[in-house]
Amino acid sequence: MTGFVHELKRRNVIRMAGLYLVGAWLLVQVASTLFPAFGVPGWALRALVIVLALGFSPAVVFAWLYEFTPDGLKRDADVSPETSIAPQTARRMDRIIIAALILALVYFGFDKFVLSPRRAATAVTAQPTQAKPAAPVPSSDRKSIAVLAFINMSADRDNEYFSDGIAEEILNSLAKVKGLKVAGRTSSFSFKGKNQDLREIGRVLGVAHILEGSVRKQGDKVRVTAQLIRSEDGIHLWSETYDGDLKDVFALQESIARAITGELKVVLQGKQATRLVDSGTENPEAYALYLQATSIFNRRDGDHFPEAIAALEAATRLDPKYARAYARLTSLYAVLSSYSDANSADSHVKVLEYAGKASALDPTLAEPYAAMALDYGEFRGKLVDQFLAMERALELEPDDVTTNFWYALALVKAGYTKTGTERLERALSLDPMLPNALRWRGSLYIHAGDLVRAGQVTRRARDLGMQTSDGNLSKIAGAKGDRAAAVALWVSGTRATMRGWSDVDRKLIAEGIYGDAAARQRAMALLDAYLAKPHPSVSQVLPEALFHLGQSPRALEVMRTRQLTDTGEPFVLLWSTQGRVMRALPEFADFARDFGFVAVWEKYGPPDMCRKRGAGDYACD
Predict the structure, then answer these.
(1) Cα dihedral 546, 547, 550, 556 sign
(2) 199 and 40 in contact (C-beta within 8 Å)?
(3) What is the pLDDT of residues 546-579, one digit of tens each?
(4) 114, 231: one domain
(5) Is there a single domain that holds both residue 145 and residue 121?
(6) CA-CA-CA-CA torsion for 266, 270, 273, 276, nearest 10 degrees?
């Protein structure tokens, strides 16, 4: 043993080990200071440590096998004792080690007495402004996460609905965990296909962690890869790859969701302690059909709604007890008339049918109540039923983004603008990049006279693909006197809501709204001809257009007597300062009673701009 130790010393192996360790430590310390300053990703420092650790053994072996000589590098066995300069090399290495130790001490002192106080001062200075976008996520949000859309790695690009669905199911299950803040689906999925820095995504969404992943589906085989990243510095905290058959997808989702809650140290309670992800079915084929239909529903792709309905009906045939499939059918039929030419009365029958089936199979589902509430809002005399259904949905799932959003619209429609705006802000706090909610927030800003904020949120909605936001931008341009822009934006903003109308006719109406008396006359001739014919439903845009064409009584008449494709926007106008003209009309009292407003006011109290004069009698300013 003594001979072996002597040989280690002679070959300078011990000195090489010491020099390597001191040099590696110093290199890591310098890198940990410089890397953040140059925006180097957090994983780079970890990679450096791994490389240095892996290099230690080769360095020691190299010192054992080789020796530097005046003639260059030679194997130790080939160097005779007479020609060896190992003692001189040892002295040089001693001097290098001493120099490295001195550098390490200097760096240690510099870090302790110069850098650390600066970091502390920076932290103190940053405290009053931590609400700024660039600030770190507050400590209260450390248990927060965004689940990004998983990448479809399958050869078949049509399987993208499957990868999206896997991510969405994990997101939905995590969103129900108490004590965990989860960014909404729309906001999280808005980064799909964008190679954006994860730290920036975390900042935008206000979350401390990000889950990203990929799905490869080939036949019945599925591979899911997921990784958890700390958004503050981009460091990967956890990653795993799961392989299985299609029937194993439920277990894969459960494993990922449970691993995430474990990493974030979230305590699971109640049923979640045993099962976190509830797919609602054990039939993988029915589940795949559900994901396919959900993808179409999330895109509000009206042209493919029949495919989504067929897929869900097939899913319920495969599993007649699939409550979530019935619930999604309820939602599809609730919005069908807004995105297609379907008859809203026929859709109403289907909404009630499927909502009843879903609730009977699973009374804890909020979706059928929310969809039923949205549908009730399209029919006169059903507004109390709408509010009751919304309240039940929120009781079951208070943090559901869609339910909060739909409830906000119901409140605004009934005249509770202040409460509705607060509820809309609640929805946006859960999903800050929800395009339609941003568009509605813009509408409320416009009618409140705040064109600056209206423009800001509306442009955000437009950037997220909400083309109908051009309607808001049209109003802003018109208020600023830019007639040409107002007309062009009105035409593009009404394409989705005025189906069956040509751009020529849309432009004629827009020119009437923003033009002179002759232009208004041409627009009214077109609208008169259209309204003279029977239609199952008319666009929500028409009452607004009539109002801006100076035809307030006619606008109220259309709202009272015609089935609108979407009853939201005209009512924002009705309860605005401008809408006082319609509220002052003699026929407004009958309209409010027939539509169901009075029944709501009797139960929940008068709205913002009305006061009660007697039983069922309200005066609205």
Answers:
(1) positive
(2) no
(3) 999 999 999 999 998 887 876 578 999 999 999 9
(4) no
(5) no
(6) -90
Residue 37 covered by a domain: yes
pLDDT band per the 50, 70, 90 thresholds, residue 190: confident
| pTM beyond 0.85, yes or no | no
Q: Give the CA count within 13 Å in the CB-facing half-sphere of 617.
A: 3
Same domain, 65 and 191: no
Residues 186 and 72 in one domain: no
Cβ–Cβ contacts within 10 Å for residue 15, how many?
Answer: 20
User: What gap in Å lies between CA 330 and CA 90, rounded to an integer?
Assistant: 81
CA distance 402 to 440: 13
Same domain, 188 and 67: no
Euclidean distance between CA atoms 458 and 464, whole angstroms:
10
Same domain for 102 and 144?
A: no
Structure tokens at 102: 């001195």
- Separation between Cα atoms, residue 11 and residue 6, nearest integer Å: 9
How far apart, in whole angstroms, are the C-alpha atoms of residue 332 and residue 408?
20
Residues 214 and 225: beta-carbon distance below 8 Å: yes
pLDDT digit string, tens, across residues 106-144 = 766 665 555 444 433 333 333 332 333 333 443 336 788
Q: Helices marked H in 273-400 — which ranges?
A: 284-299, 305-318, 323-339, 344-361, 367-376, 383-396
| Token pair in block for residue 465 | 């693909």
**Cα(7)–Cα(29) distance, integer angstroms:** 33
DSSP designation for 564: B
Q: Do residue 211 and residue 246 come from a single domain? A: yes
Q: Give me the CATH number covering residue 242.
A: 3.40.50.10070
Task: Provide the CB-side half-sphere exposure for 297 (13 A, CA).
Answer: 24
pLDDT at residue 73, rounded to an integer: 59
**What pLDDT band is residue 354 in, cutting at 50, 70 and 90?**
very high
Which residue segment(s) compose the domain that 211 sits in? 139-277
